[in-house]
Amino acid sequence: MAVYDSLKLHITSEKFIIEPVVPSSDNPELLVIDRVTQDISIQGFKNEIPASAITINIYGIVGIIRLVAGPYLIVVTQREKVGLLKNHAIWKVAKTEVFSYKRSLTHLSERQVAINKNYLALLDTMLNTENFYYSPTFDLTHTLQRLYNTSPDFNTLALHERADQRFVWNSSVLRELSQQQELAKFCLPMILGYATVTKTTVNGHALDYIVISRRCIFRAGTRFNVRGVDLQGQVANFVETEQIVQYGESLCSFVQTRGSIPIFWSQKANLKRLPNPVVMDIDHLSAFKKHFDHQIFIYGDQVIVNLINQDGPEQVLEKKLSQVVTSAQNRNIRYEPFDFHKECKKMRWDRLSILMDRLQQDRVKFGYFLQIGKKVSLTQTGVFRTNCIDCLDRTNVVQSMIAKEMLKEQFVQLGIIDVDHNLQDETQFDTVFKNVWADNADVISKEYAGTGALKTDFTRTGKRTMYGALQDGYNSVIRYFKNNFQDGSRQDAMDLFLGNYIVEEDEGLTANSSPLENNRDWKYYAVPVIFIVAFSMFMVSVLLPDEHVSEQMMYVLFWGVASILSMATIFVFGTIYVDQPRLAGTKLKSE
């Protein structure tokens, strides 16, 4: 069941009236939201829309969220067309707007107004994330193979009902609408990740090259705040990436996944560039099994491609994962460790061919999904589950190489190229492929780590460059700043939007404090102030000459030692000065 593609939002002092834009021969139903009683209902077109109503064009309803001031309606006001998949349009959300049910904030105290403003800022942070996608007529949350394997009854369900809930990022804010069956055509499921449809040619054959990455809503978060697995077997930064070739009536699909190392571990920000990962001393096997039981049920056999360092701080993760894989004794899982940095040091990126050779047999065995017209000739029976420590930079390089190996097989199968044809000779497509995967890396990285990916110069050009190394250095500096001083708020924004934290309307009243209120005392600010004063005096003592050199040296020594000690104190107690999440774990929703 399709969702309304284009609508008009009529705003009056008492109601939100949402009118589908349909052909004149149809009699559209109106979605009416009472701003006073908060009732949501369907009414016939005979109910006149007041002439005094403010009308804006919208392209879908993101959902309804409740903050301290009451409910807010979130709608899509601008969109960009990505392209067509099986003749269904894919859209990228370009702009959203938020409308309060309440006409004023006079019912709130001054303190509550401030708290509500903070929640709105968090909501804006989430809504301003660039890469929300949707289709009003096609289920973007499922791979082509999963869609083909569904029953006829499944195809009659509303989009939000049939969607893979792992990837519906607005499922929480859609809840008030989705609970009413008659509102199904207004419930628009959205994914967060990356989607592109590129028209290109290979050996003179026109085709569409499509990549869709779907980020999972379970254990969603930011880089140092969410790591590893939880008790339900969900892992941080889990992403399903589907590569699709659309050629005439033929469709080829190849799926890969990435996700945090599925054991219990953490890596809390503490002002260091890379905090040491810590493996928790608890039973990892149960959660590991839950994770892979679910993965095997959905995707088939699993090859864990682990790219982390096998010495240094990351070594503890590799050793523990290897132990847990051995203990699991699951014949559907194969473990393939590859020390990316050691093998490819001194820019020896050609050595990645060693890994590709190791994965060759599995790649042939897993295959890919091929549909010609209505007939399915091949199916994919397993996936590569790739990870590094962040599942970003190294992971994307390897995933793109596996994807390219599979593309050649698909092009040969479709009769586009011969077996001995070198795909790199197809310069137009080679450029498209490299840039698509580099863009995919940047998007997934921004959503988890706050910056574009590292090592994308190799993905874009096929080689490591000095400019790329400098760009990686710049991104690393920005990551350091964001991971330490902004990611707490970004984590809160996700938890708020995903419904992991439920706002109570009485937050901010005398007996009900809000987790967003800053409760830090003077001790938090004391040491940084001491450092600033000491360092300033140190610079003054160094730069301004004194007729008594010995006295000047004493000042330089005193203020220098004070600067070093205060800075050392800040780093010793680094976690105090990091932007920590305030909502996660405070008050989780009850299902």
Provide structural commentary.
This protein has 591 residues and is an alpha+beta fold. Helices cover 36% and strands 23% of the residues. It has 17 helices and 20 strands. It has helices spanning 110-127, 144-148, 152-155, 159-162, 175-178, 285-299, 315-328, 340-343, 352-366, 393-413, 427-449, 456-461, 466-485, 487-497, 522-543, 549-572, 574-577, and strands spanning 7-11, 15-20, 30-34, 40-43, 54-58, 61-67, 70-85, 88-100, 132-134, 191-202, 205-215, 239-247, 250-258, 265-266, 278-279, 301-306, 333-337, 369-372, 375-378, 382-387. Strands 6, 7, 8, 9, 10, 11, 12, 13, 16, 17, 18, 19 and 20 form a 13-stranded mixed beta sheet that branches. It has a five-stranded antiparallel beta sheet with strand order 4-3-2-1-5, with no helix packed on it. Strand 1 (7-11) and strand 2 form a beta hairpin. Helix 1 crosses helix 14, helix 10 runs antiparallel to helix 11 and helix 15 (522-543) runs antiparallel to helix 16. The longest helix has 24 residues, at 549-572. The protein starts with 6 loop residues before the first strand and ends in a 14-residue tail after the last helix.
Fraction of residues in H or I helices: 25-40%
Q: How far is it from the N-terminal to the C-terminal residue, by CA? A: 27 Å
Main sheet summary: 13 strands, mixed
**Assembly form of the protein:** single chain
How many DSSP-defined strands? 20
Mean pLDDT level: 92
Total helical segments: 17
Low-confidence stretches: 586-591
Strand residue content:
15-25%
Structural class: alpha+beta
- Radius of gyration from the CA trace? 27 Å
Overall, the morphology is: globular
